[in-house]
Amino acid sequence: MAGVEISDAMRRIAAGKLPGVPIHVADMRDFDLGERFDVITCLCFSIAYTRGEDELGRVAASIARHLNPGGVVVVEPWWFPERFLDGFVTGSVVEDDGRVVSRVSHSVRDGRTTRMTVRFTIADRSGIREFTEQEVLSLFTEAEYASAFAHAGLRVEHLAGPPNGRGLFVGVRD
Ligand SMILES: C[S@@+](CC[C@H](N)C(=O)[O-])C[C@H]1O[C@@H](n2cnc3c(N)ncnc32)[C@H](O)[C@@H]1O
């Protein structure tokens, strides 16, 4: 088992949750771990941080390069353009070990991307602080995902619905 993450801070969190599993700081658009796997997953719309079909194709090729023949790929996309709700808001609160964190987000469409503003408020014994993140996610069409996977030699179908409403691309390397 192994993982790939471009941010060292996120890599450290993943490594802490998966003792003994190598988590590499690497770019999904162009990584080479020098080994192949039977299953590769790319969940939580991480693939939509790429820009344009060229980058999408590079991710698909990187995945295919790391799969054994007959190996399985599972990718959770971001929304297809026709399903994205402009102005969507959501939020959640978690409480753990004397700390409360709230997260609210507002997402707008900007051409073929989603611009998501995410505001976090953190309260603990030391007080309350907040910060805001801006996320930009590509609105690839189902056909663009399918084409990228097909060009990489991955026979993939889109299963609509779970786990988060956007469905999953599930397939096999030829
Ligand atoms: C929505 S988060 C998912 C976090 C975590 N991997 C998970 O599945 O719960 C997307 C993650 O993709 C990472 N990421 C974005 N672009 C990347 C790239 N080109 N290569 C590798 N990781 C990337 C971000 O740093 C972020 O941690």
Describe this structure in words.
- With 174 residues, the protein is of the alpha+beta class.
- The chain has two domains: 3-80 and 139-173, 3-Layer(aba) Sandwich (Rossmann fold), CATH 3.40.50.150; 85-137, CAC2371-like domains (S-adenosyl-L-methionine-dependent methyltransferases).
- Helices cover 20% and strands 45% of the residues.
- The chain is built from three helices and ten strands, in the order βαββαβββββαββ.
- A four-stranded mixed β-sheet has the order 3-4-10-9, with helices on one face. A four-stranded antiparallel β-sheet has the order 5-6-7-8, with no helix packed on it. Strands 1-2 form a two-stranded parallel ribbon.
- Helix 2 (52-65) packs across helix 3 (142-151).
- It is globular, with a radius of gyration of 18 Å.
- One of its GO terms (biological process) is methylation.
- Residues 2-71 form the Methyltransferase domain.
- Its EC number is 2.1.1.234.
- It holds the Pfam family Methyltransf_25.
Kindly name the structural category: alpha+beta
- How far is it from the N-terminal to the C-terminal residue, by CA? 21 Å
Distinct compounds present:
S-adenosylmethionine
CATH superfamily of the largest domain: Vaccinia Virus protein VP39
CATH top level of the largest domain is: Alpha Beta
Order of helices and strands: EHEEHEEEEEHEE
* Sheet having the most strands: 4 strands, mixed
**Name given to the CATH architecture of the largest domain:** 3-Layer(aba) Sandwich
Count every beta strand, where a strand is a DSSP E run of 2 or more residues.
10
Uncertain residue ranges: none
CATH topology of the largest domain: Rossmann fold
Give the overall shape, derived from the CA principal axes.
globular
- Average pLDDT confidence is 98
Beta-strand portion reads 35-45%
Radius of gyration: 18 Å
Number of domains: 2
Q: What proportion of the residues is helical, as a percent range?
A: 10-25%
